[in-house]
Amino acid sequence: MPSAHPPVTRPRSMDLAVRFIQAGGVLSLVSIVLTVLTRDEIRAAAEKRMRDADPKVTQAQIDSAMSLGLAVGVVWGLVVAALWFTMAALNGRGQSWARILSAVFFMIATLLTILSLTQSTSGLARALTLLSSAVGCGAMYFLFRPESTAYYQARSGKA
């Protein structure tokens, strides 16, 4: 039975795109570690905001909010890392729909990054966010190089 996709050598631009996307996944995992390591600073900032909004807020409410926020942050980081690694694998195999989805994810991430710059965060968190954006930009550059487009076309049988 013939293969659905002819054997095609993946160009260097695709290898680089995959590496950039994998690096984005690693940065997402690093952000989880950063969140856990800086939870005391996050707690202090959250407590200040909560007390400014309601001086009668209890320590139990602050602890609950902090636990929930930390859990959401870890789960979100894992989901984002999984998306990065999944997109790396799918794009590496020449799935053209994955390139489109990666571009959509990049646009959403860019908007979220712009919004995050208006928030009060640590310098390290901001640097990590900007580095992730730069990695995403590099991935987009290599995913849309002419030789990458030819690879996607060859993998889909359109070349």
Features:
6 helices, single chain, mainly alpha, 159 residues
Summarize it.
With 159 residues, the chain is mostly helical.
Account of the protein in words:
Helices cover 81% and strands 0% of the residues. Helix 1 (12-37) packs antiparallel against helix 3 (59-92) and helix 2 crosses helix 3 (59-92). It is elongated. It has one domain. It has helices at residues 12-37, 39-53, 59-92, 96-116, 123-143, 146-156. It has 6 helices and no strands. It is mostly helical.
Helices and strands in order:
Elements: H1 12-37, H2 39-53, H3 59-92, H4 96-116, H5 123-143, H6 146-156
Helix pairs in contact: 1-3, 1-5, 2-3, 4-5
How large is the count of helical segments?
6
Structural class: mainly alpha
Helix % is: over 70%
Strand content: under 5%
As an assembly, this protein is single chain
Tell me how many strands there are.
0
**C-alpha termini separation:** 21 Å
* Approximate shape: elongated
Ranges where pLDDT stays below 50 over 5 or more residues in a row are: none
- Using only C-alpha atoms, the radius of gyration works out to 20 Å
Mean pLDDT: 90
Q: Could you spell the SSE succession in H and E letters?
A: HHHHHH
Mind describing the biggest β-sheet? Answer: none
Number of domains: 1
